[in-house]
Design a protein that fits this description.
It is a single chain. The chain contains three helices and 22 strands. It has 362 residues and is an alpha+beta fold. Strands 2-10-9-4-5-6 form a six-stranded mixed beta sheet, with no helix packed on it. It has a five-stranded mixed beta sheet with strand order 12-19-18-14-15, with no helix packed on it. It is rod-shaped, with a radius of gyration of 67 Å. The N terminus is likely disordered.
């Protein structure tokens, strides 16, 4: 193979061009190489070129979206993409912006290429999505030292958010809460449950965040702690115990009192029974030994109109004006005088003696 002869000046120019091209190709930089942004925000990339260049192109997701010449008009596929020089005097720095990024179309590779021997640089764009945060139940009022529970729900986040809790602005230990997450389509929902013992009033806050958020999303509620009411159970137990004891004492005293009254009445009853038995015995002896009384000589059977004077000799009479009334009394033994009396009332008229009534009193 024959190589054409080159004069020394030509060889010098070729060597110088190769040297300059190698030096320039190593001075092209793209920053950042990894960018994470929130959906709906802007993503920016800076390309810095050392040396002279003419045209720069930007590709997103494999599609050419912007053509940026050093001189001339910039052409873009849509208003979502734009580029400008970093400063008015420095043409070596170009700022490329993707406006209102979305997860569906923009989360991909971003490629910057400088025409010539500079080559291309590639950056990765990640798009995250911020959802909602809500503490269920609202404000809570509990008794001091009572176990309290809060539940925080996050919805429509990508990727899974980091959930944390604060109490009066101070971070709560992760040992006091538990967080679970699950996919819902192309987003994630999370549930975090916080439990602790209520001591004083506090503002409880649930926070959720992803890397692209400059400040976390949060939801807060107020915890109101009231004093613990007195333990009426103990007081009631004491009152019931004292009342039961007092009732038992009264019952015992009542039984003793009734027993004493019964003991006091018991001798009188026995004496009375003894007296009755003695009286009955005495009456039995008199009835067996002799007649209780004497024959009533003044008794006149019914239908008899007169009585012989001799039959009335042993009786005493009492006469009233207008008619003759006789009181005939039986002779009673002196020992039975206070227990038995027998007599008859007799009216004596002109036609004789007539018995009206016979009375015996014991």
């Amino acid at each position: 193979m024959t190589v054409p002869w080159k004069s020394p000046p030509d060889l010098f120019r070729i060597g110088l061009l190769l040297c300059v091209t190698g030096a320039v190709s190593g001075q092209f930089q793209l920053e950042p190489l990894n960018s994470t942004v929130l959906q709906g925000s802007d993503a920016q990339f800076n390309a810095t070129v050392q040396g002279n260049w003419q045209v720069m192109t930007w590709t997103v997701g494999g599609l050419l979206v912007l053509n940026f010449p050093v001189t001339g008009n910039i052409t873009s596929s849509s208003e979502q993409f734009s580029a400008r020089f970093c400063s008015s005097v420095d043409i070596s720095c170009v700022e490329f912006t993707i406006h209102n990024v979305t997860r569906s179309g923009d989360a991909s590779l971003v490629v910057c290429r400088v025409l010539g021997d500079y080559g291309s640089k590639t950056a990765h764009l990640y798009v995250q999505e911020s959802g909602t945060v809500n503490v269920n139940g609202g404000n809570v009022t509990v008794v001091r030292h009572q176990q309290v529970e809060f539940q925080c729900v996050t919805t429509a986040w990508f990727p899974t958010p980091t959930v944390s809790w604060t109490r009066n602005g101070q971070a709560v230990s992760s040992s006091l809460y538990n967080t679970t997450s699950m996919a819902d389509g192309d987003t994630f929902n999370s549930t975090s449950v916080l439990k602790f013992q209520a001591v004083s009033n506090a503002m409880v806050e649930c926070r959720a965040t992803v890397l692209s958020l400059t400040s976390p999303q949060f939801s807060s509620v107020f915890l109101v702690v009231v004093p613990k009411p007195p333990d009426w159970t103990v007081l009631i137990a004491v009152v019931v115990s004292i009342g039961g004891f007092a009732l038992l004492v009264l019952l015992i005293n009542g039984i003793i009192f009734c027993y004493k009254r019964r003991e006091e009445k018991q001798p009188n009853y026995q004496d009375e029974m003894r007296r009755v038995r003695t009286h009955s015995q005495i009456s039995g002896v008199n009835a067996a030994g002799q007649r209780q009384g004497q024959e009533n000589a003044g008794y006149v059977p019914e239908g008899q109109t007169s009585v012989a004077p001799s039959e009335l000799t042993d009786s005493s009479f009492s006469q009233l004006n207008g008619s003759k009334v006789y009181k005939v009394a039986d002779a009673v033994n002196t020992n039975q005088a206070e227990n038995c009396y027998s007599g008859a009332h007799i009216t004596v008229g002109e036609s004789g003696v007539r018995k009206h009534r016979h009375v015996t009193i014991v």
